Amino acid sequence: MQNTQLSSQGIILAIIGIILFSAKAVLVKLAYKYNISSEHLLLFRMLFSLPIYLVFATYKKPLQKEKIRKIDYVWILFFGFVGYYLASYFDFLGLQYIKAGLERIILFVYPTLVIIISWLFFKKSITNKQLFAILITYIGVIVTFWGEIQLENTNIVLGVSLIFLSALTYAIYLVGSGWLIPKFGVVTFTSYAMIVSSMCIIIQYIMFDRQDIMSYPLELYIICIIMAIFSTIIPSYLISAAIAKLGASDFSIIASLGPVSTIVLAHFFLGENLSYIQISGAVVVILGVYVVSNKNKTI
Question: Where is the EamA domain positioned along the sequence (predicted)?
Answer without folding.
Answer: 10-145, 158-293
